Amino acid sequence: MNYFYRISGLTVSSEIPLPGAYPVEQGDACDVTMRPGRRTRAFGQSNHHQAALEVAGDLFLLRAPGAGRFLLRGGRDIAFEVEAGVQPADCAAYLIGRVFGTLLHQRGHIVLHASAVEVGGKAVLFCGRSGVGKSTLAAFFCGAVNPLSATTSAPSASTTAVPSCLSGFAPAQIDGGGHRGARSRPPPRREGSATDRQYFVEPSVNTARAKIPLGAIYVLGFEQPADPALVDTLSAPEMLHAVRSNAYRPALVKQTGQAQRYFEAAALIAGRIPVCRLTRGSGLGELPELADRVERH
User: Fold this and answer.
1) Contact 131, 138 (CB under 8 A)
2) How far apart (Å, rounded) are the C-alpha atoms in residues 289 and 272?
3) Residue 71 CB coordination number (10 Å)
C-alpha cells in the first residue's frame, strides 16, 4: 500500500505512513518516492564523505544511528533500511525531517534550519541551532496561542522577487509526559529524561498549498539569566549572516555547489524581510509569555 503526501511543494509516494506530513489524494505522478530497500551499503568510492554522509554523483547515503540508512538518488528516490528494533514511526520522522531536507538540497532548493507558523497569511520562521526550541515554539503557537495559525514548518525559501516558504510537515513539541502524535526522533541510545524526546503535533488545518509569502524571521538563542522575550532587530550585515549561517546542513550547500545561490538568497531575504534576534531563557514554563511577545512584535 502506498501513502501520498505533499511536502515542501512536492508530491510524495511512501510505502509507510508519514505522521506529521500533509496527506493528499493519489495523483498521476509523484515527484518523490520512498520505499524500503536493502541496497543502502557504503559506496566503493565517493567524492564526499563524513561520518554520517557519503556522496557519489547524484547518490547520497545517510546513516542515522538508532534509525537506519537512507539512500537518496537524484532528488527523486529514497530507499531506506531500518535498524533492528526501530519502529516505523521513528524511521518516518527521519524521512520527512533530516532525509527530506537533504533531498531538497539535491533538488536545488534554498533550505533553512527553521520551523515556522503561518500568521495572517505569511510565514514566520524560527531559526537557530538544534535544541534551542524552534519546533517547540512553533508547536506552542499552533496549539495554544493562535488556533487559526497553520503549521508550515519546512523552511525552503525561494529566490523569487517575493521570498516565500513551502509547507512541509507538522512541528514537534517536547514531551511533557502526555505526548501526542508520532515521535519525531528515535529513542536516544543513552539514558535520558522524557524531555529529551519530541512528538509531532498534528495540525487541525492542512496547509499543503504550494507557497506562503515570508513575513519575518526570528533567530533564537539562549541567555542566562534572560528576559523571556527580548527581541532585537538585526543590522543589515547581521541579517545577511543570520540567514546564511542558518542554512540546513551547511556542508551540503558547498557540496552541491550552491554557495553563491545561498548568498544571493540570503541577501534577498535580508533586504526584504525583517530578521530579528529572539533571546530566551531555557525554561519551557516561559513559553506563553514568549509566544505572546513574539505575536505582539
Assistant:
1) no
2) 28
3) 20
54-109 residue pLDDT tens:
888 889 999 888 888 999 999 999 999 888 888 777 788 888 888 998 999 999 88
C-beta of residue 185 within 8 angstroms of C-beta of residue 198: yes
Are 32 and 12 spatial neighbours (Cβ–Cβ below 8 Å)? yes
Strand 59-64 and strand 68-73: the pairing is antiparallel
Side chain identity, residue 198: Q
- CA-to-CA distance for 18 and 215, rounded, in angstroms? 28
The three cell numbers locating residue 216 = 519575518
Q: Give just the sign of the alpha carbon dihedral 31, 106, 20, 229.
A: negative
Is the pTM of the predicted complex or chain greater than 0.70?
yes
| Distance of alpha carbon 248 from alpha carbon 228, whole angstroms | 26
Phi-psi region of 57 (alpha: psi -120 to 50; beta: other; left: phi over 0): left
Cβ atoms within 10 Å of 98's Cβ, excluding its own:
18
Q: Dmax over Cα atoms in the chain, in whole Å?
A: 55
